[in-house]
Structures are given as structure tokens and as C-alpha cells.
Amino acid sequence: MSVKPSIAPGTPANMGVDYVISYDYAAAKDKAEATGQFTKLINAVHNVGMRTEVRDGSQGKVLVFVSIRSEQKLVGAVYRSRVKDWLHGVRPAAPDKETQRSLDAEPLTEAERLRIVHAMLTQPTSDGGAGITPGKGEWTLVESIFPLHDSEFNKEWMKEWSTKWHVTPEDLRKLRDMYGEKVGFYFAFLQSYFSFLIVAAAVGAGAFFLLPQYSTFFAVANCLWSVIFVEYWKRQEVDLAVTWNVRNVSLLQHKRARFQPEGETQDPVTGEVVKVFPAWKRLLRQALQIPFALGASVILSAIYAVVFSIEIMITEVYNGPFKSILVFLPSVLLSVFVPMIIGVLTNVASRLTDFENYENESSYEAAMTQKVFVFNFICSYVPIFLTAFIYIPFGNVIVPRLDILGLMTEATEDDKASIFQVNPDRLRKQVFYFTVTAQAVNLAMETIVPVFKRKALKKATEIRNKRSNKAPASPIDHEDEKDFLTRVRNEAELSTYDVTDDLREMCMQFGYLSLFATVWPLAPVSFLINNWIELRSDAAKICIEMKRPVPYRADSIGPWLNNLGFLAWMGSITSAALVYMFSTPVAGQELPTALTVSGLLAAIFVSEHIYFIAGWAVRLALSKLDSPGLVKERQERYIVRKRFLEESVGVDRETEGKEGVLEQLGRSAYKFWDRQHGVEEAVEAGKLIILEEKKTQ
């Protein structure tokens, strides 16, 4: 097509386009299906007040450019959204009535605009949306719905962040205004984590050079650091949520398109009839998570245990032919079987979460996240647990009994234990691998490999089309939009960014630090360097390697916060066990001395109680300190209550001017409200103040 698009109100950098819908015309069974679903798509978009322009995509796909039909349509949607926020307590005050006519009173950010337009496209028709769900239900040919990158902002973002050491709150605000709060919270978390790592790295470096291996002092310091960071981030989340006006936004639940209700009931508050799913039935389905988690743990742990045993036998017992080649066998086995098993388990977890039939997206995401966390916990930490708590303490007993191949046939059963020598340095090397080598490999896999992969796939497609003489004809574009359409086609082929993947990565890294930094105190130094690069490489990944994410809102990092707390608690137990088992007064000795179960349990008991006491003390200390976000929240509450009373309660103007009763009225109402009373109680309190004031006159 060569028709120049009609420019709609919107972002000038993207020719007025709000969203692009990628429609896979070639995937249809026949022409009737492709035409019918496409016609339905265009009608659905037009029915919610959008205008469309259609252009050729690539490989049999069609690109549908979507934009708001009129600015007034957008203004109305923004006003309704803000009123809804106010009713649910997200906003401290109702939006200005001028917002019904213009957005000049309260400017609209790019993220808010795109979020509202996306809601209009994807929300169910019962909620006023078009109900388009890519790849699901009646929209099987709709491949994706995505906003376009702002190239100028991305260039400025990467340039600015690459030349500064510290990311400021203003930088995070700009990022949030462009990409939404969900992405903003991730980068805010990463920046806070990075700042705290400076302290951890300094303490770790000091412990590495000045203190003995498995130092009790460093173990306690590391445990306290983990507790303080988790509690600080909880407070920081509240500050950011208030500053970004998303406090309690998680209460605004968006219904899932795949939710299957099994009944109707009358809402006791609104009186409307709503579709529901019985809570007891969902609880029974959720109970299946327990055997699933146990089964997944057993399967993955068994795989790691078997591969671990093979690795020990090959590297430390076997001295026969092809040893230099066989040492790679364990890595090959893990590379083949673990991804395959995890893929199967992830598919089962997804089906199980679907079976639990959650009504809203946030509940579904939280349930799925916890299941995925189980897989990552096992894959990340089980190898080190096996070395620390199985191989080193009991290797002399267990490994000779694993000699099923007769590698130690020359020795008698009594002599095998004396022939095999446990490698005490194995644990430190393993922790070094996961905290340094694996981090570097993962960083390369995220930033460098996708570039070569995309170029290789593109080249392979060109070669295949050339050999089969089926090279697709190049679209004929209007000269004024040629560069723009080339960029859009490239973005349409990119992967979809999921901030959950990056949060998972940081959570697992925090686990290594909390659980095993006692083994190698320089781990926080490695993470400090890695995360400085990660903060900037993730920005580049979003700008270059991924589609622009839909700017979803959030008031926290979600269920990952609970996982951080769990890992901090686990760290207190693991650190105590490592210090008790491996710290000895003999210089250079790393094998465990005489151990007792009671001594180990006592060490864990003391360490765990230090963790709980430290957590309580940190929470108490933070509760005594005012933060900018909480001060702002109290100020907004006071102003709102004062304005409400000013409008709702008849105040004698003479009395007001003489004694300042209105000011007193506002303060008293605020005090009532701050003690968790409602607005009605505050109003009654204000009336009493006025009556008392009149009696004294």
C-alpha cells in the first residue's frame, strides 16, 4: 500500500500512532477466516472510538496502526480513569472538574496515555473495551498489541545513564512517565539494591583480606545487611507509590479474559450482580500447589544429585582414558535435561494456575510467580547445598559407595574411604562460579547473544527464501513514511519485554549473597560491578532488543518482595550452619571438625533469633523516621479533609475570621481520620467544634 496515513492526535515522533496491532494473516486456515477475523478486529477498534490505518508487515503479516479518534474521547477516558482511582483510594482527591474538558489542569504523561488506550483495546466489552486478547479466544490471528518506542527519548536515556554513576529520583520519574510504574519500580529497586551493595562490598572486602575464612563477624554482618535492605525497600516502595500517585493501585483489579465464573451474586456494597467463582473451590484447587511444589523439588533435586555424583566420580576418582572429555559430561547432562524438565514443569505450572481460575491478572501473576520461584530456587542453590552439606561433611563415606563402575576396584571396601579425599576448595570455587562466571555469562546472554541471534535468523530466512524462490515482495511504501514503517516492522519482530524476568534475576542474585556470601566474602563486590552494568544494559535491552512494554501500573515489585524476605531468613539459617561446620581455629583447615546435631541446631536457633530481633528493631527504627512519601501523604490527607469540611459544613464566616475555627476544624477532622475513623466521623467532629465555638461567643 502507498496511501499516506492520516495523522491523528498523539506522539509526533510516531506519526500520531498510539498502538500497533500485528495481525498474522498468513496463519489463517483459509481466506474466509483471515478476512472475517480481520473485519471483526477493525470493527471492534472503531466501536471504542479509535481510528485505524493498515500497512503491510513482513512474512504475511498486516500492521494495524491505532490512534484515538478525537482528543475529547481521550479526555473523557482520562477523567473516568482518574475518578476511578479516587474512588479506590489511589488518588488523594477527586480530579479537577476541568479535566472533563481539558487536560491542562493536570498534564497527561505518555505512560498514562498509553495505559488508557491499551485498556480501551483489551478490556472486556462489558467494561467498555474492545475485548481484544492476542492469541486467545476469538483473536487467534492477532499476534500482539504493542506501543512504539520513542527513539529520541531512548537515545537520551541511554546516553544520560551511561555517563553517570548514580541514578537520581528525577531520572526514575522520567522513566516512570515514559514506561509506567511497573518498569519504574524495577529500576528503582535495582538502584536501591546497588546502593546497598556498596556497603556490602566494603564489608566483604574487609572480611576477605582481614578476617579468617567463615568469619562469624562477617556472617552476622551479612545477615543484618540483608534484613536492613529488605525492610528499607519496603519503606521505599511506599514512598515511591505515594510520590508516583499509585498507592493502593493494586486494589484496582483488572479481570482476566480467561476467567470462568460459575455463578452470580449480588455485590453487598454496590447491589449490582457480579459473576463469581466459589472461594472454597479455588482453595481446593490451590491445595494442588503443595504436591506440585514437592514433586518439582524432588525431580529437579534428584537430577542435580545424580549429575553431581557423576561429576565427583569423573573429576576426583576416575583417572582412565578420555577423562579430559568426560569431565564435560555433567554439564552436557544438565544443559540437556534441566531446561527440558523445567519447560515441562513450567507448562504444568501454567495449566495449574489456569485451573485455579483467578479473576484478575495480579492474582494470576502472583500465583504463577511463586511456582516459578520454586524452580529457580532449586536450580540456583541446590548444587551449592549438595557441596556444602553433603559432599564435604560426608564425602569420605558416600562417594566410595557410589563406585558402581568399579573405578576403585584395587582397594578393599575398608580402604576406599581412605583413598578418596574430599576437595575442601570445591565449595569456594562453586560459589565463585555462580557469583562471577555465571553472572558474566548471563549478562552476555541478555545483551550480546540476542543481537547475533536476530541477525542470524534474518540471514537464514533470506537464504531459505532465496533457495526456494519464495522471497516475499518488498512492500511499496510512501516516501514520507518509508523510514517509519521500516522501524515499525523491525519492532514488530522483537521479543516482548517482561519485567518479571529481570526481577527474578535480581532476586536470585540476592539469594546467593544472603545464603552463601560467608563462603566467599568478595561476592558482593562482584555483584556491585555486575549491577552497575546491569542497570544500563537493561535500559539498552528495553530500547533496542525488546518491544516497548505496555506501561502497566504497580505499587510494588509484587510477590518478589516476599521472596526476598524468605531468602533473607534462609540466609540466617545457612550462614549459621556454614560458620558452625567450617570455621576452625586451625589456619588453613577447611574440613569440618567434630560436629554434633545439637550444636548445629543451637547455632541455627541463635542465628534465626538474631534475624527476627534485627527485623523487629529495623522496622521499629524506620517507623520513627518520617519519609518524604509519608509526609506528602499526610499533607494530602489533611488538605482533602479540610476542603471537604469547608464545602460540607456550614461555617460562620465571622467566627472563622475571628478565631480561625475552620483551621481548627480541619486539624481536628484530620486527627479523627488519622486514627482510622471515616469521613463521616470527621464531619461530626467538625460540627461539634463549631457548636462549642458558638456557645463561647
TrEMBL record:
GO terms for cellular component: cortical endoplasmic reticulum; membrane. Pfam families: Anoctamin, Anoctamin_N. Residues 16-142 form the Anoctamin alpha-beta plait domain. This is DUF590-domain-containing protein. Its main location: membrane. One of its GO terms (molecular function) is chloride channel activity. It is found in: Membrane. It comes from the Eukaryota. The keyword Transmembrane applies. PANTHER family: ANOCTAMIN (PTHR12308). It comes from Ascodesmis nigricans. Keywords: Membrane, Transmembrane, Transmembrane helix. The chain crosses the membrane at residues 183-208, 214-233, 290-314, 326-352, 373-394, 431-452, 510-529, 560-582, 594-618. It is a multi-pass membrane protein.
